Amino acid sequence: MVRVSWAGWNRRGGVIPALRRIVAGGGLLAGVAWVIFGAPVWVFAAVTTALVWGGLREFFAMVARKGIQIERVIGYAVGLSIPLSIYASFEPTKGWELFFITGAFLTIFTLQLTRRESSQAIVGISTALFGIFYISWCFSFLIKLRFLEGPGLPGGAWLVAFLIGVTKGGDIGAYGIGSLIGKHALIRRISPSKTWEGTIGGLLVSVLVALLFRPVLPAVSLQELVGLGLLLGAVGQIGDLSESLIKRDCQVKDSGRFLPGLGGVLDVLDSLLFSAPVFYFFVQHFWTG
Q: By the 8 A CB rule, do 116 and 64 touch?
């Protein structure tokens, strides 16, 4: 029989922080549900773009703590152009965002050429482009998912809901189960509080949430839903750990103060940054191809 360690729960933050997470998460869930199902598509695109801006802002602030000088104006301009171009184009599934990324390459290099010194040029260029790819390009796949249509598909809104539900469900499961029974650290040097028990529990929750969407996806087999749950759950946890690695390198606990108990925008989005493009390409290749 598994023994629940309340001492372990308190050691990882206590009951009050957990309640704050629950309250903040509940409010966030209600808002997300409205944006996905109740609001016009332009509102969904606007909220996605605003979150991209918030994520870029936090990322630029974190790397500035390390003394890395980057062209923030170009980073914001290109980063926001990517989700807006996907929405504004009449072919949302096409690659207009690649045009802006190419423009970012040229512009950032050109600005570096005008500097009086060439020190830290590679670091500055690489960091700016990484931020654009990591946050703006990856998260903008939610807009592409929202526009996806095809035979047997439930509609873009349900695809987005499936992605968020499975990925964030795994997040919540990993946190809750890890807090209760977690004893074996997953990668201590990056995130000491994450455990193998939490990781496995999170994957199981992701699978469970995926199976709950069976009525919406009747054409998808149970085996495929289980596989998708494991895939998105695993990729989501890699995204979570990746953001923890960035924060550890920048020596910050949270990326920002977006929501009490949940941290910054990147702390909320981290698991979706990798799972969004993975799920989009999966749907395009296997469900609409």
A: no
Q: Which residue has the higher pLDDT, 214 or 181?
A: 214
Residue in the structure block whose two tokens are 């050429």 = 113
pLDDT for residue 6 is more than 50: no
Provide the 10 A C-beta neighbour count for residue 96.
15
147 with 92: CB under 8 angstroms?
Answer: yes
Q: Residues near 99 by Cβ (< 8 Å), separated by ≥ 6?
A: 85
* Torsion, CA 201, CA 263, CA 249, CA 58, rounded to 10: 130
Owner of token pair 């990322």: 59
For residue 167, give the nearest of 112, 235, 217 by alpha carbon: 235
Place of tokens 């946890």: 237
Interatomic CA distance for residues 247 and 33, integer angstroms: 29
Residue 143 structure tokens: 């807009």
pLDDT, tens digit, 9 for 90 and up, residues 233-261: 999 999 999 999 999 999 888 888 877 66
pTM of the model: 0.88
Residue 269: which of 83, 60, 55 has the closest Cα?
55
For residues 231 and 70, give the distance between their C-alpha atoms in angstroms, rounded to a whole number.
34
